[in-house]
Amino acid sequence: MAKTPPVHTTPNGGGWVNKRAIDLLSVLTLLAISLVSCTDTSSTEPSQRPSFSGGGIAAPTYSVTLTPTASNQDVGPLTLGDYQYPTLGVVEVTGILDQYYSQATRWIFPPPTGDLRGTLAGQMDAGGQWQTSQCYARVMVIFSQGGGEAFCDAYNQKSIISVWSDTSVMKGTGTARWYKGPASFSSNCDGAGKPPCYTYDGTHVVTVTPVQASLLVVPTRYVTHPGKSSVTFRARRTPSTFGSHVVPLAVQNWTWEPDSGSGVGPSCGTDTTCVFAPVASGTMTVTALVNGTIQSQSVHIRVLCAATGRPDLDSLPLLDAMSAAFDSAWNADPTLRRERGWSVDCLDGMCVPMVHPVPPGTTPCTTLWPSGSSTGATRVGDGHVHPFVPGELSTDTLPNSCRDPDKQYPPGIPIQSAAGPSRHDRRTAREMQLTGWNHCIIEPNRIHCFPMNNPDSKWSMPRQVNGCTIAIAPKDNFVEETA
Amino acid sequence: MRSALTISWALLLGCLNVQAAPVVAQASACLSQPDSVSAYLDMVRQHYAYSDSASVVSAGNPWADTTAIAHVTVSSICQDAVDAYNAALGTTGTPQQDTAAYVFSIGNSGYVYVRPGDTSEGRQHYYIFTASWVLKATMLG
Question: Does a structural domain hold residue B95?
Fold first, then answer.
């Protein structure tokens, strides 16, 4: 019961601050993927792209400031923070100390050197100073259960640099310490009861910044049929490495949630790979420790009905378009249902399933037919929805808006939808004089298809066979909605 | 005599002429334009082929297997259909009343009535009657 004439239509249709930014990016990325929604027509997979809803998540960043004042006095250890799980991150120290000769009398020299006390002796960075096989006046970061960094300018081969950094896998409570120095070999300073040999001005700011890493779950296929081989799910993280280190990943568990009802899930323990053969559509979720944070990631697997032998009903982009069209057309309230047109156009091997917008003035019983394919693309299928159960009078009586205003109706008599393509549907198909694809009409319980150039050569199939409903949107089963 | 005979023939012919009018008025109420019959029959059969019989029957509507759906050519049945339609719409005896229609039997459980000239650009209307000519529904197709 579609309305002419065909018109052109358009497709429908520290680090927490950083974390928010990444999350926003992830949302925008997902949105872009959803809008494109291209599907390879030659295959039944994939229908989805991996989802990245976790974004880049990082364990907390910690920072402390070390303020050395004298060469004979350690600073710290000062507590940075705690990493409960192995966490790969960057340990960084910024700042250069100005080193002054102290007030010790050893710095009083005969001319021409003279009295050096209180004058600038030089500078000291986090790597400190190499003396007798070790570094002094340097910064050390240590974690109680492993990891950290002891900065050292071995053999004094580096010039003064303001930033020292390295990567480390850290666990436990982290502390930062400035190790006093340089070592003194004078009895005049740095000894017990003696003044320091040097004094310092400046700070070392110690920061540990975990690497932002995201959990991924990647299945070998997103769409499967009953009886097809198992789906292998792999838990991954991105990035997988940072510097010379592997980003820690430890799977906690795998869970399977069917779209409806209950079902037996996998027994994959804490393996990073899970092999599972779903018998119905559902969502696989992996929970894992990824670089110190517990993350979960899910992927939806569609289990299609058994192949029908009808290419229109076994081709994923067409099924996607049909299910989306029906989903958007259906409403428990009959007055809010709308016939929706759909189409699938392909170009260069990529196909775009589209649900066409509801034109103004349409009713639950009328819509505009999908126009022909857009320029350059090849139409592989189209159709529209009849969102009423034919012949059903108890729940699916047609709303009054379906009545033709120029006709009289027997008072008190309900109007109902006829099954299958209307005479008008067939007439419209003939008048469009297009060929090369089928037009399919989706009813709640059946799908009717006919070649555009021969609408009398129609065929029809029930949507539900052996408990499996063809072309129904995941997680949005209309049967459940109306129950 | 000649005049009398002439008059008698005239009277006879007049009687015949008078009697000819009811013959025209009693032309079949069954419309039978072949293309329309074929198209409507196809639609009606399609509807019953793809409808859920349980839902249809539970609502008290006629239902039959598609092989038992046929075009009605018995004028008395079509006249009953026309009368029932006019009564349901309140057009009996008015200029808007139907005098003939396409009628299809749904086995022996009811009938589908299609008005002549209902070929609007929109939807075709099919009126579903029980076997006792109770209008149960208007079907759009």
Answer: yes
Residues A394, B140: C-beta atoms closer than 8 Å: no
CA A235 to chain centre: 13
Contact B41, B33 (CB under 8 A): no
Out of A391, A406, A443, name the one closest to residue B56 (CB): A391
Question: Chain A residue with minimal CA distance to B88?
Answer: A410
- Chain A residue numbers with beta carbons less than 8 Å from the beta carbon of B88 are 410, 413
Buried b (16+ CB within 10 A) or exposed e, A436-452: ebbbbbbbbbbbbbbbb
- The per-residue b/e assignment along B1-26, b for 16 or more CB within 10 angstroms, e otherwise, is eeeeeeeeeeeeeeeeeeeeeeeeee
**A430 pairs with which residues across the strands?**
none
Q: Are A365 and A402 in contact (CB under 8 A)?
A: yes
What pLDDT digit, counting tens, does each position of B48-102 carry?
998 888 878 887 889 999 999 999 999 999 999 999 999 999 999 999 999 999 9
**Could you tell me which of B131, B33, B37 has the C-alpha nearest to residue B81?**
B131
User: In this predicted model, what pLDDT tens digit does every residue of B108-140 receive, in sequence order?
Assistant: 999 999 998 765 556 789 999 999 999 999 998
Greater confidence (A124 vs A18) lies with A124
Residue type, A153: D
CB A99 within 8 A of CB A240: no
Residue in the block written with tokens 């997979």: A45
Percent of chain B, pLDDT > 90?
A: 61
Q: Is B126 on the interface with A (CB under 8 A)?
A: yes
Enter the pTM of the model. Answer: 0.56
In a domain, B19, yes or no: no
How far lies A368's CA from each of A7, A440, A461, in Å? 7, 14, 24
Within a domain: residue B74?
yes
Distance CA A48, CA A40 (A): 11
Please check the confidence at residue B37 and state whether its pLDDT lies above 80: yes
Strand partners, A123: A98
**Mean predicted lDDT score pLDDT of chain A:** 81
Print the domain residue range for B52: 27-140
For β-strands A438-442 and A378-385, DSSP reports them as parallel
The C-alpha atoms of residue A168 and residue A175 are separated, in whole angstroms, by 14
Asked if residues B126 and B44 have their Cβ atoms less than 8 Å apart, the reply is yes
Tokens of B10: 């005239």
CA-based nearest distance A281→chain B, Å: 27
Q: How many domains does chain B contain in total? A: 1
- Cα–Cα nearest to A253, from A281, A215, A205, A221: A215
Q: Are the Cβ atoms of A409 and B138 closer than 8 angstroms? A: yes
Between A263 and B9, the more confident residue is A263
Is B16 a domain residue?
no
* Three-state secondary-structure class, residue A262: coil
| Amino acid at site B15 | C
Distance CA A192, CA A135 (A): 21
Q: What DSSP string describes A345-370?
A: EEETTEEEEEE----TT--TT--EEE
